[in-house]
Amino acid sequence: MVAASGLASAGFPAIVSAVNRKPTIRVLGTHVTLQEAIRQRAEQDLGINIEFHPGGSAGVLLRASTNPQSFDLYEQWSNSIRILWQAGSIQPIEISRLKYWNEINSLTKTGRISPDARLGQGDAPYKLLYVQPEGTLAPEPSRHISFLPYVHNTDSFGYDSRRIAQGVPYETESWGWLLNPDYHGKVAIVNAPTIGLFDLALAVQARGLMQFADIGNMSRTELDLLFEIAVEYKRRGHFRGVWSSVPASVELMQNEEVWIQSMFSPGVSSLNGMGVPCVYAAPREGYRAWHGVMCLSSHCEGERKEAAYAFMNWWLSGWPGAFIARQGYYIANPERSRRFMSAAEWDYWYEGEPAAQRLKGTDGRFSVAEGEVRTGGSYQQRFENIAVWNTVMDNYEYTLIKWKEFLLA
Amino acid sequence: MVSTFYFKLRTRIYAGYIITGGIALLMVLLAYFSVMSLFGEFKHFTEHGESALRGQELSRNVVELQRSADLFMQDGQVSGARQAAYISERVQRILLQLEQGGQPEVQERVESIRQHLNIYTSTFEDVKRQRQRRAELVEQRIADHASEVNRLLQAYRRLQGSGRAAPVDQLAELETALLRVEQGASRYFYTLDGRHITRMQQWMRESRQLMSGFALLEIRPEAQALLDAMLQSLQNYEAVILEAVQRTRGYMYLVNVVMAAEADEMLYQTQYLAELIQAEMKNIEEQAVAEMRWTGQWVLWICLGLLVLVLLLSYLIGHSVADPIRSLAKTFMDLARGKDSTSIERQDADDELGELARAAEVFRSKNQETRQLLASFQALSSELEQKVADRTQELEQANARLEALSNTDSLTGLANRRLFDQVLEREWARVERSGEPLAAIMMDVDYFKLYNDHYGHLAGDDCLKAIADELQLQLKRATDLAARYGGEEFVMLLQNTDLEGALRVAESIRQAVEQLHLPHVESPMGQVSLSLGVALHTRDCPAQDRHWLVRQADEALYCAKEGGRNRVCAWPQVGSIGRSESSSGRSDH
Question: Which residues cross the membrane (chain A) (predicted)?
Answer without folding.
Answer: none
